[in-house]
Structure formats: C-alpha cells, structure tokens
Sequence to fold (769 residues):
Amino acid sequence: MDTRKSQYKHKPESVKSLRERRRKQGEALRKAKREKLLSSKRIRQTSLTGVDEITELQVKEACSALTKKPESRGELLIFLKKAFTQGSAFIDAFLGEENAMTTLVSIFTGSDEKLQLEAAWCLTNIATGAEEHALSILKHAGAYLITFLSSGNGPLEDQCLWTVGNIAANGDKCHDMLKDLGVVAPLVKLLGSETSSVVQSAAFALSNMARGAPTHGKELVDSGAIPPLVKHLVYDEDKLKVLAEVSWVLAYLSASGDYEDALLEAGTLEKLNSVLIQVAKDHPNDFEVLTPLLRCLGNICCGLRDVSARACKNKDLVPALGTLLQSEHRHIKKECLWVLSNITAEPDICQQVIDAGILSSVIELLKSAFDIKRQAAYSLCNIACHGEAMCTVLLNKGALQVAVPLLKNHDQDTVELALNFCHLMLSNDKKSLEVFLDSGGLEGLEGLEYHSAENIQSLAKQILETFIYPEQEKEAKEKENVSA
Amino acid sequence: MDDMDGMCDGNESEPAVMRFPFPWKPLQRRIALDDPFFEEGNILCNLRLKQISVSESELEELVTPYEEFSCQFSGCNRAFSTVVGYEMHYNAAHRNVCRECSRSFPTSHLLDVHLTEWHDAMFQVLAARQNMYQCLVESCLEKFATAKKRKDHLIQQHKYPANFRFNRTKTVARKNKIDHSQAQTSDSMEVDVPTENLSSRLTVGDKTMDTLPSQPPSSTRTFIYKVPRSIQFGQGAQRGFQHNRGQRRGKHWHQSGAQGDMATNSMVNIEHVPMDDLVTALDET
Fold:
C-alpha cells in the first residue's frame, strides 16, 4: 500500500494536518467575512444589478474593447462597474490588462460627461477592493478626483466623493496620499453644497478620513470642518440620512477627546441635544441616526467637568434617554446606558434621572444580558456614590434586591461592579444592611471569599469585615445581654 | 477605561488590582468607535448603509425627455434631450472657459490660475521679482518662481502625476480636448500631434520671445517629461524608430506610397474603384 502511495505526486496528508488546514481556512473565511461586515466602504449598486454570472474572460474582453471600440464605451463601462461589485478578482483582472486603467482615466477626464460619470462610478467600485487597487486609482487619477470636487458638477462631485470615501477606508497609506493631494479642504467646502446627496457623500468621505490614527481628526479640525458639520445638526424629516452621516464625523472627532474645545465652541452640545431629543421622540427606532448621535454625546460628556451639566440644562434630554432605554435594538439600549453612566457622574443630573422616572428602567435592565447588565451597573454605582439621599431612593426602588444576585454571576466585571454597588449602599444608608442580608447577601459574599481573582476576594472580604461581621458581633452581644 | 467583553484572568500571585476605584468614585468612560463595545452597533449600521442602491433614473433627475435641443454656446453643437444632461455638459465644457484662448477648465480655481499666468501682462513683470506661480492645490499656499518648480512641488508634495492634463502647454491640451474621442491609450495621454504644432513644443530650454498672445510666456518652459520627437541627444546619430518612437503619425507604412486617391482617403466608393491597373495586369499574363 505504501509503495503505491509513494508513487502519487502529493504526499498524503495526515488527518490531523488536514483538519488543521480546514480549520485555518474556516478561520480565514470568518475573519474576511467579519472584516467585510465592519468595513466602511460602500459599493454603489444600481437596481439593475442582476444575477448574471460574470466571468473573468468577459472582463478582459471588455477591457480591450474599451480601448478599441469607443462607440460602445457606455455599455462597457456599465458592465465593468457591475463586475467590480462582485469581488476583487475582477478588479485584479481589469488592472492587469495593459492600458485599461489609463483608458479609464482618459475617459474620466474627457469631454463626454455621461461617460465621465460612468467612469467615475467604475472608480468608486474599484476602490472597494483591496489596498493596492485604491493605490492604483490614486496614482493614476488621484489629482483629477480632487480637482473635480470643485467642478460644480453635482453628480460628478457626488461620485468622486464616494470614490474618495472608499479609498480613505483603505488604510493609512491611502489616507496620507489623499491628504497630500489636498482632499480635506474641498471636502469641507462641499459640506456647504445645496444638494443634500453631495453633503451626505462629503460627510461619508470625511468620516472615513477621520478614522484610523488619532491624528487624522486634527487635519479635519484644522481645515475648519466643525462649524459646517454642526450646521447640519438640525432635524429635518427628509434629511435624516445627511444627519446620520454628519453625526458620524462628529462622533469620530469627539471620540479622540482632543477637540473638546473646538466642538464646544461651535455649539455642538446644544444642537446635538435638541436633535437627539427630536429624533428620540419621532423616530425612536431609527438606529442609523441614533447610534452616531448617542456615541457623540457619550464621548463629549467625558470631557471637562461641567460638560454633562451643560448638556442637561436641556431638561428634555434625560427623558429622551429614558425613551431610548426601551428601544427595540439591543445596542441602542446598551449605548444609551453608557451615555447615562457618563452623565450620572455629576450629582445634579442624578436628581434629574430620578425625577424623570428612569430608575426603574435602569434597574430592570440589570436583569438583561451580560453586556447590558454591566452598563446598568455602572450607572447605579455612579448614582449611589453621591450620598445618602440617592441611596435611599435606590433602596426604595429595589435596586439592591436586584444587585445582590449578581454576586453569583460568572462575569467578573459584573461581580466587581455589584460588589462596589453593595459597598456603596451599605456605606451610605444604614437601612441597606437588612435588605442586603434578606436578599441573600451573606451567601453571595461568602461564595466570593475564595474567588480565583484576588481583587474580588479582597473586596468581598472587606465588605464582610466592614459591615457584616461587626453587625453579627453586635447581634451576638445583644443576645448575650438579653440572656444574661 | 475601555469596557471588556469576557472575563479577565485572575492574578493570584500579584496584589489585588481593582478594576474600578475603591471606594467608588464617579466614573466616566470614553470609548473609541472601533472598540469591541460598539461592534454590534457598527455591524448593524454598516449592513443598512451598504444596501444603498441607486436606481438608474435617479441620475437623470429631470428626466423628462424633451425634443432634442442643442447647446447654445457658440461653436458647440452637442445635442441633448434632458435638462440635467445639458447642465452637466455646460458646467464641464463652458462654464470655466478662458475668453482669450477658449480653453476650458474643470474648476474656476484652475481657470483663475490660468488667467493670471497666461493672460495677465503684469504677471511676467511680477514673476521676475517674486515667486508668483501658485500651487494648484487650493489649500496649499506655496508659490514658486517657475512653472517647473511648481510642477515638481505638485509631483513630490501632492503626488500629482507628471502628465496632469490641466497643467500643460496650450496646444497639447487643446488637442487632447478636441480629439478626446480618438484618444490613444498611451501612458502620457498624448494624442497624435499634427506637424504644424510641433514647433511650439520645442521650448525646452528655448526662451523665444513671441509676440503672439496665444503663445505661453517666454519664461515658461514646457515640462514635457517625454522627450519630443524632434529633440535628439548627441550628434544626431541614427537610431532605430527615431521617426515614430512607437507612435504612429498618420499613415502606416503600407498605406503610404503611390496609390493615388486611396492613400489619403481610405473611404472608398465601391462604384468608383479604378480597375485599370488590374485590367493591365491581367492583360499582361
């Protein structure tokens, strides 16, 4: 048997190595899929994108026809732009053909505007490929893309913006080349366009430029991007998509923490609040708009001390957040709780939270999935540390009763948060002890005394020693006195 | 402090490290947008955004097809059937047009630069004393003493291509514009240049003072990075392919020659093909 096997070309692989290879392939596929889900490039499809099979041979033929048959360029470009949406293989085939790219660029810079637009659309879809595809575009057509951004030709500007946005998503090298080409200034200028689709695309391009290294945001801010962006933070039923895109840019800028002053000066906070309140009222489930707005607010409020107080000068903000806690989308609940946890760091706001009647929702969410639990716990801890009055309210709302079972949770962060919460309640409100013990607090703590994580162990022990044992000793003494 | 998914390993041998301040202090957390905390939201939003589709008709907004009308600009006879098609053409071809030399530019900024540098008498005077050639990138405020220096800056600093078509001498660009439909796909995007314009390309190193207003200012040197065909290095030693350098000028070798009308006009009326030579040839056999 073995002699026959050795006559085969490939050494037969052992089962183990085959399995290993399969596993790696599976991992690579999953990783690629996940990257695709998270990538911020956008393919521009037409409604006519059919299910026709496109072959590589067809793409190559189209490339040569592009140079040789000028009359059929229109349909060839339409065919090519569809082909590019179907994957990098076709883009590679296209770029591999001699002169294909240069022909495309000459059409792009030519005098037939219809063909120009189709060529630009092709470039948009090429840019959704790999980094080297985007670099190829920049090398051949980068300067023209930037020039046409100031052309005043709406549809062309729009298409060039898509291309720039997709290129910018391809990593630092592309981003730096775009910056060198001088892309930021025209992008900012286009935010003032009359056409809302152009504004939307410009914001898309800017948001991809702002991502990546933390210094990227600086270029935008230095080019004066913030005021025109803030100008679009208004509620308009028909322009929600523009609002979403603009909020994304601001969300990226606020996440870095370096542009607090510029953002606040431009009045971002106030406008953000009013628009958030409006959207929460009229479109509470439109997560496309709500997600960037929430993230922007959450990160802005991490800044200077009184930012949250400023934010909550608008009395409708906290109730709006309360509405969002009931969202049908998990991540909105989670992110809204995070925002809440950031603003409850300030004592005055906690009172607003209580007044708005949100506490019960927060406590309820303590029973939800692990990541939502955690965020709720952060908020409660922040509220509880502001003194006795707060803790009394929390106690009355039943927060402690829900928190104690969390001591048995297997997520370590949750346990530590719960421990902290219990500690706060016990420290601030004498009445908590009884409730604590009734809810099974003692067992919970004792279960943690030998926890694998040292910090949990020591926390548990500290609570026991500070509150439980003294109490137990007191009770024991009283019993003695009684019996004596 | 970023939020972490999943559990962290306990460090049994090290002293207790609290994740959170103990006793608790009000905690604010700034989280980056690509943190795993936001992953769920990111995926959802991306999925929704990626389904952006544009129907063909959206591009032709004012799609009411009128009866064909033609462009009103003098000399242009393009025809259109939609308003937006005409608008686009007008913006691209006629809005930023130089009145002196009728070249068209894609943006008003490039037109301004052109007007200043080519049709402003003061420019040459000032350029002699200070750096007047401004960078073509609007956000870059640098100025240069010569057009070549500016071009080098564009290439090095701003990664422009060497053959950027809106930074060329007049004749080459004009040819490109008009002959677009017949553009060859060579790397330099140059089209066959008829012989009469060749002389204007010989300005490398020349500083001819021309009186024609349409000639580029004398101190502007053409910076064609592909050597023009008429320039020869050395003593004019015969080199292969010297005449054409791979680019055809006019007829192919087998089309030229004593073949009468058929040489210059390849469109043949089949009725009038002279068959005399065929007749004589047949007669001879």
User: Anything to note?
Assistant: Chain B has nine helices and five strands.
